[in-house]
Amino acid sequence: MIGKIYGTGSYVPPNVMENDDLANFVETSDEWIKERTGIMRRHIAQEEDMVYMAVKSAERALKNANIIAEEIDFIIVSTISSSVVLPCAACEVQKEIGAVNATCFDLNAACSGFLFAYNTAQAYIASGIYKTGIVIGAEKLSNLIDWKDRGTCILFGDGAGAVVLKAVEGKQFPLITHSEGEKGKALTCWQNDFIHMDGQEVFKFAIKQVPKCICELLEQNHLQKEEIDYFVLHQANRRIVEAVAKRLQVEIEKFPMNLQEYGNTSSASIPILLDEMNHKGIIKRGMRIIISGFGAGLSWGASLVEW
Description:
Layout: E1 2-11, E2 16-18, H1 30-37, E3 41-43, H2 50-65, E4 74-78, H3 89-97, E5 103-107, H4 113-127, E6 132-140, H5 150-153, E7 158-168, E8 176-179, E9 187-188, E10 196-197, H6 199-220, E11 230-233, H7 238-248, H8 259-262, H9 269-279, E12 288-295, E13 299-306
Parallel strand pairs: 4-5, 4-6, 11-12
Antiparallel strand pairs: 1-7, 2-3, 6-7, 8-13, 9-10, 12-13
């Protein structure tokens, strides 16, 4: 058995912070940020907490999948920014959407989180333990940002995305994930502190490891890169996405981006982008998509999705 994506949903706060607005906090400009990151604006939550955004994305994914909440067997929420420790965010989502039959838990793998949660869901479905589930990436990173640190405050935004997976007949694809804790100091957030990042170290790590793991995934699935319709990467930085495309020698048009609108939303970036592509009709049934996440841990990986 394999988990097929039957529906997608997302939520981003309506409150928008433009690049020029950040000049109120740090020495920067719209031109400086766009040149280095590709980001033009980000959405910053005001009244919304992380659970609220997760709930909204789940509700929209259920509607898109035409599935009622009682059919859901499991809910996984990937987040590093939950406002609740107990109960877990996934149980809060269960309560709000009425998924009374679901097993619920959270997962923390930062910007790789949605990919790791998606792979966990696929393992459950392949084993026959569960048949239908929701995987959510949701973040309120604005709570973890030092707005006087130009190296991080220009990058991050808030939002949530979700997919509904349903078991269908089929062979499970190989799943590629890696971690390297020895280099974890490149991106940290200690309790009662802010996110700290060595941007150059993260950049070098991403442009080296992401193409390698995508090639590893292609080899294990006996596919050529030309057979992939889209490469949906974690939306961290335009330069990273462009560098990965160049190293793979794949045209940039196959690497959709929305980071210019949302910035880096960590766990939420891949499912938000998938939802946009789905609702715009960019993704068609039968297409092959590679999703790839990378970030703190350090952790990274890639998975093949047949839409």
